[in-house]
Amino acid sequence: MNNSIQLKKLFVGTKQVFVLCFAFFALSCNHVFGQAKFSISAPSSVGVNQNFQFNITLENANGSPRPPAFTDFQVLQGPSTSTSMQWVNGTVTQSVTYSYILKPKQEGTFKIGKASVVVSGVTMESNELTITVTKAVQQQAQRQRDPFDDPFFQQQQPQEPETSSADLAKQAKDDVFLKLDISRSSVYEGEMLTATYKLYFRQNLGSLNLDKAPAFEGFWSQEAEMDPKRRPTTVNFNGKQYNMVELYKYNLYPQRSGSLKIAPAEVKVVAQIPVRSRSRNIFDDFFNGGRVQQVPMDLKSESGVITVKPLPEKDKPADFSGAVGKFNFETSISGKEGKTDDPITYTVKISGTGNLKLIESPTLKLPSAFEVYDPKTKENITNGASGLTGSKQYDYLIIPRQPGEYKLDGKAFSYFDPTAAKYVTINTPEYNLKITGAQKT
Predict the structure, then answer these.
(1) pTM listed for this prediction
(2) Tally of domains within the chain
(3) Which terminus of the chain is more exposed, N or C, with fewer CB under 10 A?
(4) 372 and 410: one domain?
(5) How far is the C-alpha of 209 from the C-alpha of 287, rounded, in Å?
(6) pLDDT tens-digit readout, 175-196
């Protein structure tokens, strides 16, 4: 056994680590994801009386793998899944492993065929495996001793009991916590603010899950679109250095004035807490300070309170319908001449940043000679860090039923600008229409 293999065994041993390990990331450099990979793995040789683990691994992609046929093996368990992320030489690798426990049916040499998965509409296939099933082997009561596990002491050390997870969780409460960050403490009714739930940690973490989503009573909420490749950053908090990652971000639009509460979020994580070995093995203390214990932790952020100011009554336009933000407003018409019963499209477009999704379609007031249908709505809205941004377009189908010359009055759109703390009204021009054709009776 060469030195590199020995050192690998010294660091890893027989421990299995199922982690979503943020601390593997090099926080000071830009990371890129590797290419999608798909593979299967299992031991090349097992005894006919031995159970073994068969893995399907999908890297840097999303999909639901289809396992191969296990014709010559009995499936005892699975699939179970584990997710991991690693940083190696500037490349971030994300992977999901689907594990099965198999048992041979008989001795011989058998092939396990390819697994498949559809990724972004493309079918990927894995490698194939050949497994040799030998005669029954003697099952050892304990694993074979590796002399490198304990090079200086021949006497077998008793297995150390794990430290209480509850005690370790208490010790780690200042090293791993969830914090609520609110973008502003006072806003106008309908004005956006952002609630961000940030995870701070000084330990390796694994299997993070949202246990309880926050409630936003009194708000219209939209979860912000975040970069799926976002990485933790290094920050200082209360004089200590932490890794910090934004887990969830919500853009909130208060729907009433007064004092409104932003509820906490609850997250479950598994922290990998180093535990110093009490054995006489000097290598335990030399490398990584001893073993690592998986410690479940229930994290809960604090709640928040904001003050919501009512929209001013002074100078409020008569046509104001609740739009808050900064907007543009325009209208257009498909033609200024037409014939009776030929449809004309009247378009209203509102664009900008603010509570766009809450803006209702404007009402058209047209001469009685026109029949108006409900508008067809087109939305192009994104929900990013600055809130709802984009446009809403309303296409009205209007049909003239009588010939003549008509004037379609211009429209007005009013909104409240919270930055300037004032109302703004935009007026569009009127349109003159000439309709020819037979008089309707």
Answers:
(1) 0.60
(2) 3
(3) C
(4) yes
(5) 30
(6) 899 999 999 999 999 999 999 9
Q: What pLDDT is recorded for position 174?
A: 87
Mean pLDDT of the chain: 81
Give the residues across from 101 on adjacent strands: 53, 77
Which pLDDT score is estimated for 137? 83
Which residues on adjacent β-strands are paired with residue 199? 178, 245
Question: Residue 405: which pLDDT band, with cuts at 50, 70 and 90?
Answer: very high
Residue 84 has pLDDT above 60, yes or no: yes
Close Cβ partners of 270 (under 8 Å, ≥ 6 residues apart): 19, 205, 206, 207, 208, 294, 295, 296, 297
- Asked if residue 127 and residue 38 are part of one domain, the reply reads yes
Greatest Cα-to-Cα distance within the chain, rounded to the nearest angstrom = 111
Give the residue among 39, 276, 321 at the shortest CA–CA distance from 171.
276
Paired residues of 91 in beta bridges: 32, 88
Range of the domain at 59: 16-137
What is the distance between the terminal CA atoms of the chain, rounded to a whole angstrom?
102
| Nearest of 432, 139, 163, 364 to residue 271 by alpha carbon | 163
| Domain shared by 258 and 223, yes or no | yes
Are 300 and 176 in the same domain?
yes
Task: Render pLDDT for 197-225 as a digit per residue (tens, 0 to 9).
Answer: 999 998 887 767 777 778 899 999 988 88
DSSP for 293-341, please give it: EEEEEEEEPPPEEEEEEPPP-TT--TT--S-BEEEEEEEEES-SEEETT
Cβ atoms of 159 and 246 within 8 Å: the answer is: no
